[in-house]
Amino acid sequence: MMNRILSAISIMCMASLVTAYSALCGPGKIEDMKHKDGKLGAYHALLIGIDDYQDSTIPGVKSASKAANELAGVLKQNYGFDTDLLTNKKATGENIVKAIQVLSQKVGIDDTVIIYFSGRGDVDSSGKKGYWYPYDAKAGAVESYVDNERVQGFIRDMKANDILVISDSTYADTFFGSAHKLPEEFSDAYYLNLYNKQSRWGLTSGTDGSKENGISIFTDKIIQALKGNEKPHFSLQELYEKIKPDIRKSSIRPPRCRSLRNTGDQGGEPVFVLLASALEKIAAAKGSDEDKNSKNKAKSGDKTGAKDKIIGDSTLSVAVNISDAEVAMDGVPLGKGAVNKMAVSPGIHLIEVTREGYVPFKKNVIVKRGALASLNADLAKVEVKSTKGNLQVTVVPETADIKFVGQNIAYTPGMLMEKGTYTLEISAPFYDKQSKDIVVKALENNMYSVNLDPVKSVHHKTLGNFVLINPGTFTMGSPDSESAMRNSNEKQHKVTLSRRIYMQEKEMTLGQWRWFIKSANYKTEAEAGEGAHILVDYNWEKDSEYNWGIPGFNQNDKHPVVCVSWNDTQAFVKWVNKNSKESITFRLPTEAEWEYACRAGSKDRFAFGHCLLREQANFEGNAKWEDCPVGVSSSGTGEVGKFQPNAWGLYDMHGNVMEWCQDWLGNYQDGDVTDPTGPQSGTAKVVRGGAWTSYAYNSRSAKRYSRSPNESYSDMGFRLVLEP
Predict the structure, then answer these.
(1) Mean pLDDT for each consecutive 10-residue tract of the chain (724 residues)?
(2) Nearest to 234 by CA among 152, 176, 164
(3) Which of 163, 190, 345, 379 is deepest in the core (most CB within 10 A)?
(4) How high is the pLDDT of residue 537?
């Protein structure tokens, strides 16, 4: 049941839309990064906690459900999260997957998502495979677990702006990517930059799921850090720095807080944004404490006015070169001039030193427990107010060229620009060119994002148009109920194609093949050997008189080429790649790419529905099959592109000629797969699509044929794909 649900999760390849949306509608200034009347998306959290397991041989985890409930409370009350809880018996594998599926469907492209799991889990000895145990897990039965890799897949398909997985259990080390270095100053630009880039992060305790009585140290530290935060904006890595020392002491393996590989992370980071109501409570509490501190300061004359900073075992000294400069810590004024061994709490503190006529000084200082931290704040005079600002343009793809229209200026990241309005032109091969007007403000970090859209088609002067096939996930194969003529090797399974390709919109024509033969002086295997197979009285016979130029029926240069072997197609590919001037690669499609493109989003037998009509394709239609209409027979190929295309603009994917694929024939792999290429070796190559000789049921999207790579038939041709 779980596998069926997993295979049903919809494709959500929205990374490009997320970046574009953030550039146009995301927060442009720090004032916009608030929940009410701002430009933030919604905040969602799915929290899973399992104390005991249906299988009594799996050890329980104390207070996992309590941890999930308490974390849900602080997320909702302080940060405005919409929370869903799955605890104990409700947290079955099926329900976990359904909950993530529902979450995927309701989140928007600028939303923030947290998925939290507290329970038993495991990582194999290699550290490459990790699992969460749902309530109904069976000890030793890996298929009953929730695979970390599948969790990664859910994240990759989700169209949220920021996603954070918190695993109070295990998570495979190989799934973690890079982390960001914390800045010296937590400026407005820092938080805006993190939020306006899509992020996919994981935070794990490094334990095996076992805990003492009560909430785990890991989750408790997260809750306390979130509760104790008084900053309007609080990045994930700031939180991690606060909890890391205590977590390291209690972890079997080092804890992790990093981006997640292969999930669409684009360099951002989740940012916790306090609700206005939470900020008001903090301000009220500070006011009360400041009144008390002011009275104490009047008596003692010290500079310990910062709320909750006086701990006693950690101290801070700040040396200032301007004696009457104002000093503040974490936004709380400390007075004028130097600070000498002031008692503070351990952690990261923002020190600000200001004086009129001087450049403001801002720097984060790390105060260790029981230690003295020292900082020198040297203010520099403001001599001339700059009229320039920094410019940073993030583009997808990263290799895109950025030009200033009408300006003799070369772009470099972070460059200084005179304030004003400029027009950028961003371009890259196989992407639509885009123009963007920008405004550079003086003394600011001016940040912009541009996401180029892939071109919808690529035209080759001889081979014609190639249609864009975007990455995606689909169910390959056919159900048992599809047809009495269904082959047993059509087992349904979930396939993800991660790369963008372009597929030839029409089958390779006789005229295009003739161009190759003349240019390369090539002789096909049928010409050099024993000829091609032709259909004689419904039997295939091999005859040395037949080849691509003499197929046994009339053709013109607009008909698809036939009587070419798989080896002949490889000679064509090698020659056209060698002689191509563009930075592209031609090849045959893989079997998975072919079926994905043929279906064009359809889950039915054909791209056009339940039945294939003779008006839709060139096939042997004069045969009764189930409840489908009977059509006329076919005596040979027809000109390519004469029948209606499928939803993605591809012609003759059903009928006319069968088409060679790149793969050797073999049984499909078990489970979900990404970018499959078939077996490493074999005796026959895959052929797809049906032909003028095929009945309708042999022209289905899932139908698999195979032929020896050195054989040629009068109903077999091919089409190419190209990779930018």
Answers:
(1) 35 33 56 76 93 90 89 92 93 92 88 92 73 91 87 86 88 73 79 87 70 74 91 89 80 77 86 87 68 51 42 79 91 89 86 90 88 90 79 93 94 92 94 95 92 95 96 95 83 96 98 96 95 89 94 95 98 94 89 98 95 96 90 94 97 98 95 95 97 95 96 97 92
(2) 164
(3) 163
(4) 77
The CA distance from 570 to 585, in Å, is: 13
**Radius of gyration over every alpha carbon of the chain, rounded to an integer in angstroms:** 32
Q: Does the global pTM surpass 0.85?
A: no
Going by the DSSP 8-state scheme, the letter that residue 506 receives in this structure is S
Tokens coding 293: 């501190």
Per-residue pLDDT at 19: 36
Structure tokens at 4: 């069926």
Question: CATH homologous superfamily of domain 388-451?
Answer: Carboxypeptidase-like, regulatory domain (2.60.40.1120)
pLDDT attached to residue 293:
54
Q: Where are the domains of the chain?
A: 2-274, 277-377, 388-451, 458-723
Give me the half-sphere count of Cα atoms (radius 13 Å) on the Cβ side of residue 669: 15
Let me know: does 367 contact 346? Beta carbons within 8 Å: yes
Cα–Cα distance measured from residue 443 to residue 193, given in angstroms and rounded to the nearest whole number: 17
pLDDT, position 252: 60
Cβ atoms 64, 72 nearer than 8 A = no
CB 171 within 8 A of CB 148: yes
Question: 53: which residues sit within 8 A by CB, 6+ positions away?
Answer: 59, 60, 120, 133, 135, 137
The CATH superfamily holding the domain 458-723 is paralog of FGE (formylglycine-generating enzyme) (3.90.1580.10)
CA atoms within 13 A on the CB side of 246: 16
pLDDT of residue 4: 34
The tokens describing 139, both together, are 């000890």
CB 227 within 8 A of CB 78: yes
Instruction: Provide the β-strand partners of residue 202.
Output: 165, 258
Q: Which pLDDT belongs to residue 721? A: 98
CA dist 410 and 404 (Å) reads: 8
Structure tokens at 462: 């001889």
What class has domain 2-274?
Answer: alpha beta
Q: How many other β-carbons are positioned within 10 Å of the β-carbon of residue 212? A: 10
Give burial (CB, 10 Å; 0-12/13-18/19+) of 573: middle
- Which pLDDT does position 9 carry in this prediction? 32
pLDDT of residue 37: 67
CATH 2.60.40 is held by the domain 277-377? yes
Residue-level pLDDT at 652: 98
In whole angstroms, what is the distance from residue 234 CA to residue 245 CA?
A: 18
Residue keyed to tokens 């306390």: 224
User: Quick check: do 277-377 and 388-451 share a fold?
Assistant: yes
Per DSSP, the three-state class of 430 is coil
